[in-house]
Amino acid sequence: MNTFDRIIGYSSIKKELMQISDTLKNREAYEKLGVSAPRGLLLYGEPGLGKSLMASAVIADSGLRYFLLRKDRPNGDFVKEIKTVFKEAKENAPAIVYLDDMDKFANGDERHPDAEEYVTVQSCIDEVKKEAVFVLATANNIRCLPRSLLRAGRLDRKIKVEPPHGRDAEEIVAYYVRSKKFARDIDVKAVAHLMDGCSCAELETVINEAGLYAGYERAEQITLEHFMAAYLRTVMNEPASEDDFGEDLSSEEEIRRQVVWHEAGHAVVSEVLCPGSVTLVSARSGAGRGGFTNYYNDRTRSGLYWRKSRIIGSLGGIAATEQKFGLVEEGGSRDLDAAFRAVRNSVTEDCACGLHLHSGGYEDSQRLVAEQEQAISSEVEKYFRKAKEILALNAEFLEKLAAALSEKSLLSAVDIERIRSECKIVSVAI
Ligand SMILES: Nc1ncnc2c1ncn2[C@@H]1O[C@H](COP(=O)(O)OP(=O)(O)OP(=O)(O)O)[C@@H](O)[C@H]1O
Ligand SMILES: [Mg+2]
Question: How many C-beta neighbours within 10 Å does residue 346 have?
């Protein structure tokens, strides 16, 4: 088994890492061509995305001795340790100096470009310039690091590790699911879409947590329901089970009905405009909790279409409660704020209503601001009408989705797909 096989997905990063490792294993081949191999590599990105895993795969594949530096002692001692580690690597060259979590070498996450630790790392890198010492670093926040450290000749290769998306996320989910007793019909794609934007570490935790719920119930298999409960608990920070209704049953019921229709409105508008985009709808009852709808952008549509659909979708909640109960809800202001923010951006920055309303980077005149505000509210109004049109034309879908949500409180992408396939969907141009 290739050491890079431990990294699931991320094929283009893996390819780049293999090439770098090849320059470490076969220096002569490159020297013969008169080229100099990269001197250092920095892997950076959010926590839990596999940077340390990738770094250790490069080390293992290269077969070189490595010297690890991770901050675990007070500043003065640590600076001494940096010098010792580079000295040892030089004496044992060819070798790798592995600087794990380098952005934590100086105090916390603040910007400390002049910190003694970074100055020391930089001078040590320069000292081993002529030696076969490769510097491999990982970091979350590269803004903490001095720019001079990142320039060519020092950490000259930089790879940004993003949260897994699309095929990568599916491969990671499939990998974790394979080693556990999941129900055979578990939809890996639905799970991956639901967890879009989450790190591999979160994926691993949620899948394991789902197994714990199943174990606690003494279930034979882990189901999508267990997974959704684990997702809500771990990622959305919601309790795993619904609270009982409080004392005031009738008002709780009333609120819940509104939440159900509101979330069904978001989901239906989004599904009509972008089929397959809703990954989870929740309308769970209990103290202080409303519902929410999660979305997944498969990036096959144009960015502009997706942005417009999201604005109309965000107004779908209030459009549905207005259509069903004839009222403007109190809880709709967050959606309205989101819609106004998105429209303001498209009017003032992206020229959605013509060049004359572009902010142009200068302080805006009162006249321009007034014209922008007018354009923004008529745009939001237009999108709100579109949301209502979509719901009116797809009343059957809305009714069925609201009924299912009322019964189950949580609908997965699989549930939504089933309901959608049972209804006649009328598409609407936007
Ligand atoms: N692509 C991947 N394939 C398989 N497992 C992965 C992948 N990415 C991360 N993991 C697993 O997720 C966990 C976290 O990975 P790792 O420690 O490498 O993340 P990191 O980016 O270094 O995080 P931090 O910034 O917090 O140091 C580990 O258990 C690791 O094995
Ligand atoms: Mg790490």
Answer: 19
Any idea what the CATH number is for the domain that residue 39 is in? 3.40.50.300
The tens digit of pLDDT for each residue in 320-366 reads: 999 998 877 666 788 999 999 999 888 887 777 777 777 776 666 78
Whether residue 118 is found in the same domain as residue 74:
yes
119-166 tens-digit pLDDT: 899 999 999 888 899 999 999 988 888 888 888 878 889 999 999 988
* Mean pLDDT across 243-252: 55
> Do 144 and 103 touch, CB atoms closer than 8 A?
yes
211 and 154 both lie in a single domain: no
**Å from CA of 103 to ligand 2 middle:** 11
CA separation, residue 40 to residues 49, 62, 98, 370 (Å): 20, 14, 10, 53
Ligand nearest to the CA of 140: 1
Dihedral angle over CA of 168, 174, 180, 185, nearest 10 = 140
Residue 172 alpha carbon to ligand 2 centre in Å: 18
User: Residues enclosing ligand 1, CB less than 6 A?
Assistant: 7-10, 47-53, 101, 138, 140, 172, 200-201, 204
Task: With residue 280 as reference, give the H or E element that holds it.
Answer: strand 278-282
Ligand 1 centroid from CA 230, angstroms: 20
Q: Do the domain assignments include residue 335?
A: yes
Residue 289 is assigned to a structural domain of this protein: yes
Q: Where are the alpha helices (DSSP H) in 248-302?
A: 249-273
Cβ proximity of 93 and 131 under 8 Å: yes
Nearest ligand 1 atom to the CA of 100 is 27
pTM of the model: 0.78
Together in a domain, 202 and 333: no
> Which pLDDT belongs to residue 287?
45
Among the bound ligands, the one closest to the CA of 139: 1
Q: How many domains does the chain have?
A: 3
* 295 CA → ligand 1 middle, Å: 24
Residues 415 and 269 in one domain: yes
Residue 47 resides in a domain: yes
Percent of the chain with pLDDT over 90: 50
Long-range contacts of 346-349 (CB under 8 A, 24+ apart): 346/307, 346/379, 347/372, 347/375, 347/376, 347/379, 348/372
